[in-house]
Specification:
The protein has two helices and no strands. By secondary structure, it is mainly alpha-helical. It has one domain.
Length: about 100
């Protein structure tokens, strides 16, 4: 016969595992985004120091437009990844709760 305490704790342990897994996934997405944006920021500062005349200013501003498009596209990808983590977490939590209710 199973230990009653273990039976009561099993869903809680599963939920804690799912929460940790979700937090790790979110942290990985955020860390990647932070690193990308830090590199972009350093690139912007570095290229800004190379502006010497009107032509180089024009070139710099055009590069910033491209950077803006890149950041926007990556932000959209990050949002989709975060939404998927949330959806997956909600589905898995629902399964754990339904399973624990069926057992109880």
């Amino acid at each position: 016969m199973k230990n009653v305490f273990e039976e009561l704790m099993a869903p809680i342990k599963e939920l804690n595992f799912l929460t940790l897994k979700s937090m790790e996934q979110i942290t990985a997405i955020q860390t990647k985004a932070f690193m990308d944006y830090a590199k972009i920021g350093m690139y912007a500062v570095n290229t800004a120091t190379e502006v010497k005349d009107l032509d180089s200013l024009k070139s710099y501003l055009e590069s910033q437009i491209a950077v803006t498009h890149y950041v926007t596209d990556n932000a959209a990808v990050d949002v989709e990844e975060l939404k998927e983590v949330g959806r997956s977490f909600a589905t898995e939590v629902k399964e754990v709760v339904e399973k624990s209710i069926a057992v109880g």
